[in-house]
Protein backbone atom coordinates (compact mmCIF):
# COMPACT_ATOMS: atom_id res chain seq x y z
CA UNK A 1 0.00 0.00 0.00
CA UNK A 2 1.16 3.53 -0.79
CA UNK A 3 0.19 6.30 1.59
CA UNK A 4 0.44 10.01 0.84
CA UNK A 5 0.85 12.16 3.96
CA UNK A 6 0.75 15.92 3.41
CA UNK A 7 2.15 17.61 6.51
CA UNK A 8 4.27 14.55 7.30
CA UNK A 9 6.58 16.53 9.61
CA UNK A 10 3.68 17.55 11.86
CA UNK A 11 2.82 16.09 15.27
CA UNK A 12 0.57 13.34 13.92
CA UNK A 13 2.32 12.97 10.55
CA UNK A 14 5.83 12.23 11.78
CA UNK A 15 4.72 9.75 14.39
CA UNK A 16 2.38 7.97 11.99
CA UNK A 17 5.00 7.76 9.24
CA UNK A 18 7.56 6.32 11.68
CA UNK A 19 5.07 3.67 12.85
CA UNK A 20 4.09 2.73 9.29
CA UNK A 21 7.74 2.29 8.32
CA UNK A 22 8.61 0.23 11.39
CA UNK A 23 5.52 -1.99 11.54
CA UNK A 24 4.47 -2.56 7.92
CA UNK A 25 5.76 -2.97 4.38
CA UNK A 26 3.81 0.08 3.20
CA UNK A 27 5.42 3.00 1.35
CA UNK A 28 5.04 6.57 2.58
CA UNK A 29 5.13 9.59 0.28
CA UNK A 30 5.34 12.79 2.29
CA UNK A 31 5.47 16.52 1.83
CA UNK A 32 6.14 19.21 4.39
CA UNK A 33 7.77 22.62 4.60
CA UNK A 34 10.19 21.21 7.23
CA UNK A 35 11.83 17.89 8.02
CA UNK A 36 13.16 18.37 11.56
CA UNK A 37 10.87 15.72 13.11
CA UNK A 38 11.61 13.04 10.55
CA UNK A 39 14.84 11.50 11.85
CA UNK A 40 13.15 8.13 12.31
CA UNK A 41 11.94 8.10 8.68
CA UNK A 42 14.50 9.77 6.46
CA UNK A 43 16.83 6.76 6.25
CA UNK A 44 14.15 4.35 5.04
CA UNK A 45 13.97 3.45 1.35
CA UNK A 46 10.17 3.24 1.72
CA UNK A 47 10.00 6.91 2.75
CA UNK A 48 9.83 9.39 -0.12
CA UNK A 49 9.99 12.95 1.13
CA UNK A 50 9.76 16.26 -0.64
CA UNK A 51 10.24 19.56 1.10
CA UNK A 52 7.54 21.93 -0.10
CA UNK A 53 4.39 23.92 0.54
CA UNK A 54 1.01 22.36 -0.35
CA UNK A 55 -0.15 25.72 -1.63
CA UNK A 56 2.62 25.80 -4.23
CA UNK A 57 3.52 22.23 -5.24
CA UNK A 58 0.19 21.41 -6.84
CA UNK A 59 1.57 19.24 -9.65
CA UNK A 60 3.57 17.06 -7.27
CA UNK A 61 0.47 16.62 -5.14
CA UNK A 62 -1.82 15.72 -8.04
CA UNK A 63 0.71 13.23 -9.40
CA UNK A 64 1.03 11.58 -5.97
CA UNK A 65 -2.70 11.48 -5.28
CA UNK A 66 -2.95 9.57 -8.56
CA UNK A 67 -0.08 7.27 -7.56
CA UNK A 68 -1.07 6.47 -3.94
CA UNK A 69 -3.87 4.40 -2.40
CA UNK A 70 -4.62 6.36 0.79
CA UNK A 71 -4.44 10.15 1.01
CA UNK A 72 -3.99 11.94 4.35
CA UNK A 73 -4.05 15.75 4.16
CA UNK A 74 -2.71 16.63 7.63
CA UNK A 75 -1.64 20.21 6.93
CA UNK A 76 -3.55 22.60 9.19
CA UNK A 77 -3.15 25.36 11.73
CA UNK A 78 -4.29 23.85 15.05
CA UNK A 79 -3.49 26.44 17.71
CA UNK A 80 -6.36 28.50 19.18
CA UNK A 81 -4.24 31.65 19.47
CA UNK A 82 -3.92 31.66 15.66
CA UNK A 83 -7.68 31.16 15.15
CA UNK A 84 -8.20 34.45 16.99
CA UNK A 85 -5.28 36.41 15.56
CA UNK A 86 -5.25 35.20 11.95
CA UNK A 87 -8.65 33.69 11.13
CA UNK A 88 -8.25 34.16 7.37
CA UNK A 89 -5.00 32.22 7.30
CA UNK A 90 -6.81 29.40 9.15
CA UNK A 91 -9.63 29.45 6.60
CA UNK A 92 -7.30 29.55 3.61
CA UNK A 93 -5.08 26.72 4.77
CA UNK A 94 -7.39 24.51 6.81
CA UNK A 95 -10.38 24.87 4.47
CA UNK A 96 -9.42 26.03 0.98
CA UNK A 97 -6.15 24.15 0.52
CA UNK A 98 -7.61 20.98 1.96
CA UNK A 99 -10.75 21.19 -0.16
CA UNK A 100 -8.51 21.05 -3.23
CA UNK A 101 -7.00 17.78 -1.95
CA UNK A 102 -10.44 16.35 -1.21
CA UNK A 103 -11.44 17.11 -4.80
CA UNK A 104 -8.36 15.34 -6.15
CA UNK A 105 -9.38 12.24 -4.18
CA UNK A 106 -12.80 12.44 -5.83
CA UNK A 107 -11.24 12.95 -9.28
CA UNK A 108 -8.93 9.94 -9.00
CA UNK A 109 -11.18 7.69 -6.92
CA UNK A 110 -8.74 7.55 -3.97
CA UNK A 111 -9.41 6.76 -0.35
CA UNK A 112 -9.31 9.87 1.86
CA UNK A 113 -8.42 9.74 5.54
CA UNK A 114 -9.32 13.18 6.82
CA UNK A 115 -8.37 14.76 10.17
CA UNK A 116 -11.53 16.35 11.51
CA UNK A 117 -11.28 17.62 15.09
CA UNK A 118 -12.81 17.43 18.55
CA UNK A 119 -13.40 21.17 18.06
CA UNK A 120 -16.30 20.56 15.67
CA UNK A 121 -18.51 19.70 18.67
CA UNK A 122 -17.86 23.20 20.03
CA UNK A 123 -19.96 23.91 23.12
CA UNK A 124 -22.05 20.76 22.77
CA UNK A 125 -23.73 19.94 26.10
CA UNK A 126 -23.77 16.14 25.74
CA UNK A 127 -21.95 14.29 28.50
CA UNK A 128 -20.04 12.37 25.83
CA UNK A 129 -19.76 13.60 22.25
CA UNK A 130 -21.10 11.09 19.75
CA UNK A 131 -19.98 11.17 16.11
CA UNK A 132 -23.41 10.37 14.67
CA UNK A 133 -25.77 11.96 17.21
CA UNK A 134 -24.32 14.99 18.99
CA UNK A 135 -25.19 18.51 17.82
CA UNK A 136 -22.32 20.80 16.86
CA UNK A 137 -22.69 24.10 18.75
CA UNK A 138 -20.62 27.17 17.92
CA UNK A 139 -20.59 30.75 19.22
CA UNK A 140 -21.33 34.00 17.37
CA UNK A 141 -19.37 35.12 14.30
CA UNK A 142 -17.50 37.85 16.17
CA UNK A 143 -15.90 35.08 18.22
CA UNK A 144 -13.24 34.19 15.67
CA UNK A 145 -12.07 31.18 17.63
CA UNK A 146 -14.78 29.20 15.88
CA UNK A 147 -13.39 29.67 12.37
CA UNK A 148 -11.27 26.54 12.79
CA UNK A 149 -14.20 24.48 13.99
CA UNK A 150 -16.48 25.86 11.27
CA UNK A 151 -13.86 25.22 8.55
CA UNK A 152 -13.34 21.65 9.66
CA UNK A 153 -17.07 21.06 10.07
CA UNK A 154 -17.84 22.28 6.57
CA UNK A 155 -15.10 20.05 5.16
CA UNK A 156 -16.57 17.09 7.06
CA UNK A 157 -19.93 17.89 5.47
CA UNK A 158 -18.46 18.32 1.98
CA UNK A 159 -16.57 15.01 2.31
CA UNK A 160 -19.72 13.31 3.49
CA UNK A 161 -21.63 14.76 0.52
CA UNK A 162 -18.93 13.57 -1.92
CA UNK A 163 -19.30 10.12 -0.39
CA UNK A 164 -23.08 10.26 -0.75
CA UNK A 165 -23.29 11.70 -4.26
CA UNK A 166 -20.02 10.69 -5.94
CA UNK A 167 -18.94 7.55 -4.10
CA UNK A 168 -15.86 9.04 -2.39
CA UNK A 169 -14.31 6.47 -0.05
CA UNK A 170 -13.41 8.30 3.15
CA UNK A 171 -12.91 8.02 6.88
CA UNK A 172 -12.86 11.11 9.11
CA UNK A 173 -11.13 10.93 12.48
CA UNK A 174 -11.40 13.36 15.37
CA UNK A 175 -8.39 13.55 17.68
CA UNK A 176 -9.23 14.70 21.22
CA UNK A 177 -6.30 16.66 22.65
CA UNK A 178 -3.51 14.31 21.60
CA UNK A 179 -0.27 14.98 23.41
CA UNK A 180 3.23 13.55 23.33
CA UNK A 181 6.73 14.15 22.02
CA UNK A 182 7.02 16.67 19.17
CA UNK A 183 3.60 18.21 19.88
CA UNK A 184 4.52 21.89 19.33
CA UNK A 185 7.74 23.79 19.38
CA UNK A 186 8.44 25.17 22.83
CA UNK A 187 8.16 28.92 23.26
CA UNK A 188 11.52 29.32 24.95
CA UNK A 189 11.55 32.84 23.62
CA UNK A 190 9.00 34.83 25.71
CA UNK A 191 7.81 36.66 22.58
CA UNK A 192 6.30 33.43 21.27
CA UNK A 193 4.34 32.93 24.51
CA UNK A 194 0.71 32.00 23.97
CA UNK A 195 1.14 30.46 20.53
CA UNK A 196 1.05 26.72 21.21
CA UNK A 197 -1.33 24.23 22.81
CA UNK A 198 -1.75 24.02 26.54
CA UNK A 199 0.67 21.21 27.40
CA UNK A 200 3.57 22.68 25.43
CA UNK A 201 2.64 26.14 26.67
CA UNK A 202 2.94 25.00 30.29
CA UNK A 203 6.19 23.12 29.67
CA UNK A 204 7.68 26.24 28.04
CA UNK A 205 6.69 28.35 31.05
CA UNK A 206 8.17 25.79 33.46
CA UNK A 207 11.46 25.73 31.56
CA UNK A 208 11.66 29.52 31.63
CA UNK A 209 10.47 29.73 35.30
CA UNK A 210 7.77 32.10 34.08
CA UNK A 211 4.23 31.93 35.47
CA UNK A 212 1.91 29.21 34.21
CA UNK A 213 -1.25 31.02 33.22
CA UNK A 214 -4.68 29.50 33.80
CA UNK A 215 -7.14 31.05 31.40
CA UNK A 216 -10.32 32.18 33.20
CA UNK A 217 -9.49 30.09 36.28
CA UNK A 218 -8.51 26.85 34.53
CA UNK A 219 -11.60 24.84 35.43
CA UNK A 220 -12.24 23.92 31.80
CA UNK A 221 -11.71 20.21 31.15
CA UNK A 222 -10.13 18.20 28.38
CA UNK A 223 -9.44 14.50 27.81
CA UNK A 224 -5.78 14.12 26.95
CA UNK A 225 -4.82 11.25 24.66
CA UNK A 226 -1.32 9.90 24.29
CA UNK A 227 -0.01 10.02 20.72
CA UNK A 228 0.89 6.29 20.60
CA UNK A 229 -2.72 5.35 21.40
CA UNK A 230 -3.98 7.64 18.66
CA UNK A 231 -1.50 6.29 16.15
CA UNK A 232 -2.46 2.69 16.99
CA UNK A 233 -6.04 3.55 16.07
CA UNK A 234 -5.01 5.28 12.84
CA UNK A 235 -2.99 2.22 11.81
CA UNK A 236 -6.12 0.09 12.01
CA UNK A 237 -8.13 2.69 10.12
CA UNK A 238 -5.54 2.79 7.32
CA UNK A 239 -5.55 -1.02 7.16
CA UNK A 240 -9.37 -0.83 6.78
CA UNK A 241 -10.04 -4.53 7.20
CA UNK A 242 -13.06 -5.62 5.10
CA UNK A 243 -13.50 -1.94 4.07
CA UNK A 244 -15.47 -1.50 7.29
CA UNK A 245 -14.40 2.06 7.99
CA UNK A 246 -15.42 3.66 4.70
CA UNK A 247 -18.00 6.40 5.20
CA UNK A 248 -17.42 6.53 8.97
CA UNK A 249 -16.37 9.25 11.42
CA UNK A 250 -14.44 8.21 14.54
CA UNK A 251 -13.60 10.06 17.73
CA UNK A 252 -10.10 9.10 18.84
CA UNK A 253 -9.68 10.14 22.44
CA UNK A 254 -9.24 8.88 25.96
CA UNK A 255 -12.29 9.60 28.15
CA UNK A 256 -10.49 8.21 31.22
CA UNK A 257 -7.84 10.95 30.97
CA UNK A 258 -10.15 13.86 31.78
CA UNK A 259 -8.56 16.69 33.76
CA UNK A 260 -9.08 20.39 34.36
CA UNK A 261 -6.47 22.74 32.97
CA UNK A 262 -5.68 23.59 36.60
CA UNK A 263 -5.02 19.90 37.44
CA UNK A 264 -2.82 19.73 34.38
CA UNK A 265 -0.77 22.72 35.53
CA UNK A 266 -0.24 21.25 39.00
CA UNK A 267 0.69 17.82 37.67
CA UNK A 268 3.18 19.19 35.15
CA UNK A 269 4.74 21.44 37.77
CA UNK A 270 5.07 18.53 40.20
CA UNK A 271 6.68 16.28 37.55
CA UNK A 272 8.97 19.08 36.42
CA UNK A 273 10.14 20.03 39.93
CA UNK A 274 10.73 16.36 40.82
CA UNK A 275 12.73 15.58 37.68
CA UNK A 276 16.50 15.14 38.14
CA UNK A 277 17.19 17.26 35.05
CA UNK A 278 15.71 20.35 36.76
CA UNK A 279 17.76 20.11 39.98
CA UNK A 280 19.69 23.26 39.13
CA UNK A 281 16.55 25.45 39.07
CA UNK A 282 16.50 27.92 41.96
CA UNK A 283 13.09 29.33 41.08
CA UNK A 284 10.02 27.48 39.78
CA UNK A 285 6.97 28.82 37.95
CA UNK A 286 4.05 30.04 39.99
CA UNK A 287 0.54 29.22 38.79
CA UNK A 288 -1.56 32.33 38.17
CA UNK A 289 -4.98 33.16 36.70
CA UNK A 290 -5.51 35.39 33.67
CA UNK A 291 -8.53 36.56 31.69
CA UNK A 292 -9.05 34.99 28.28
CA UNK A 293 -9.51 38.38 26.62
CA UNK A 294 -6.04 39.39 27.84
CA UNK A 295 -4.46 36.05 26.92
CA UNK A 296 -6.08 35.38 23.53
CA UNK A 297 -7.95 38.58 22.65
CA UNK A 298 -11.63 39.49 22.32
CA UNK A 299 -12.45 36.85 19.71
CA UNK A 300 -11.86 33.91 22.07
CA UNK A 301 -14.53 31.73 23.60
CA UNK A 302 -13.73 28.54 25.49
CA UNK A 303 -15.06 25.00 25.57
CA UNK A 304 -15.81 24.03 29.18
CA UNK A 305 -15.72 20.26 28.77
CA UNK A 306 -15.16 17.78 25.99
CA UNK A 307 -15.41 14.04 26.50
CA UNK A 308 -15.39 11.71 23.49
CA UNK A 309 -17.67 8.74 23.17
CA UNK A 310 -15.34 6.05 21.84
CA UNK A 311 -18.05 3.43 21.53
CA UNK A 312 -17.68 3.34 17.74
CA UNK A 313 -13.90 3.04 17.83
CA UNK A 314 -14.18 0.24 20.40
CA UNK A 315 -16.90 -1.70 18.60
CA UNK A 316 -16.02 -1.21 14.95
CA UNK A 317 -12.24 -0.83 15.10
CA UNK A 318 -11.58 -2.88 18.23
CA UNK A 319 -9.39 -0.11 19.67
CA UNK A 320 -8.89 0.94 23.26
CA UNK A 321 -6.59 3.72 24.57
CA UNK A 322 -4.07 2.42 27.10
CA UNK A 323 -1.84 5.25 28.35
CA UNK A 324 -3.03 7.02 31.51
CA UNK A 325 -2.73 10.78 31.97
CA UNK A 326 0.25 10.81 34.33
CA UNK A 327 2.27 8.53 32.06
CA UNK A 328 1.33 10.60 29.00
CA UNK A 329 2.40 13.83 30.72
CA UNK A 330 5.63 12.35 32.08
CA UNK A 331 6.61 10.99 28.65
CA UNK A 332 5.83 14.30 26.96
CA UNK A 333 7.77 16.26 29.56
CA UNK A 334 10.68 13.83 29.39
CA UNK A 335 10.94 14.37 25.63
CA UNK A 336 11.06 18.15 25.94
CA UNK A 337 13.52 18.04 28.82
CA UNK A 338 15.81 15.73 26.85
CA UNK A 339 15.71 17.75 23.67
CA UNK A 340 15.68 21.30 25.06
CA UNK A 341 17.45 21.42 28.39
CA UNK A 342 20.78 22.38 26.85
CA UNK A 343 19.13 25.35 25.13
CA UNK A 344 17.86 26.69 28.46
CA UNK A 345 20.85 26.00 30.72
C1 LIG B 1 -7.38 22.32 20.65
C2 LIG B 1 -6.98 22.92 19.32
O1 LIG B 1 -8.04 23.63 18.75
C3 LIG B 1 -6.56 21.88 18.35
O2 LIG B 1 -5.22 21.57 18.60
C4 LIG B 1 -7.31 20.60 18.28
O3 LIG B 1 -8.07 20.44 17.14
C5 LIG B 1 -8.13 20.28 19.48
O4 LIG B 1 -8.15 21.16 20.55
C6 LIG B 1 -7.68 18.95 20.03
O5 LIG B 1 -6.47 18.71 20.16
O6 LIG B 1 -8.55 18.15 20.39
P1 LIG B 1 -8.03 23.41 22.95
O7 LIG B 1 -8.12 22.13 23.68
O8 LIG B 1 -8.97 24.47 23.39
O9 LIG B 1 -8.21 23.21 21.38
O10 LIG B 1 -6.55 23.99 22.93
P2 LIG B 1 -5.39 24.25 23.97
O11 LIG B 1 -4.61 25.40 23.43
O12 LIG B 1 -4.61 23.01 24.22
O13 LIG B 1 -6.12 24.74 25.31
C7 LIG B 1 -6.76 23.90 26.21
C8 LIG B 1 -7.32 24.72 27.36
O14 LIG B 1 -6.24 25.28 28.11
C9 LIG B 1 -8.19 25.90 26.94
O15 LIG B 1 -9.28 26.00 27.79
C10 LIG B 1 -7.28 27.12 27.12
O16 LIG B 1 -7.99 28.30 27.41
C11 LIG B 1 -6.42 26.68 28.30
N1 LIG B 1 -5.06 27.30 28.35
C12 LIG B 1 -4.24 27.25 27.28
C13 LIG B 1 -4.62 27.89 29.54
O17 LIG B 1 -5.36 27.92 30.55
N2 LIG B 1 -3.36 28.42 29.60
C14 LIG B 1 -2.52 28.39 28.53
O18 LIG B 1 -1.36 28.88 28.66
C15 LIG B 1 -2.96 27.78 27.34
CA distance, first residue to last residue: 45 Å
* Poorly predicted parts: none
Strand order of the largest sheet: 3-2-1-4-5-6-11
Number of continuous helical runs? 12
Q: Summarize the amount of helix as a percent range.
A: 40-55%
CATH topology of the domain at 76-180 and 225-257 and 306-322: Rossmann fold
Bound molecules: uridine-5'-diphosphate-glucuronic acid
- Estimate the mean pLDDT confidence: 96
Broad CATH class of the domain at 76-180 and 225-257 and 306-322: Alpha Beta
User: What is the N-to-C succession of helices and strands?
Assistant: EHEHEHEHHEHEEHEEEHEEHEHHH
Whole-number radius of gyration? 20 Å
Indicate the proportion of strand residues: 15-25%
Number of strands: 13
Query: Biggest sheet: strands, sense, closure?
Result: 7 strands, parallel
How does the overall form come out from the CA principal axes? globular
Description:
This protein has a domain of 155 residues: 3-Layer(aba) Sandwich (Rossmann fold). With 345 residues, the protein is α/β, with parallel strands linked by helices. The mean pLDDT is 96. It contains 12 helices and 13 strands. 44% of the residues are buried. 42% of the residues lie in helices and 16% in strands. It has a 7-stranded parallel beta sheet with strand order 3-2-1-4-5-6-11, sandwiched between helices. The chain has a two-stranded parallel sheet with strand order 7-10. The chain binds uridine-5'-diphosphate-glucuronic acid. Uridine-5'-diphosphate-glucuronic acid binds next to helix 7 and strand 8. Uridine-5'-diphosphate-glucuronic acid (UGA) binds next to helix 7 and strand 8.
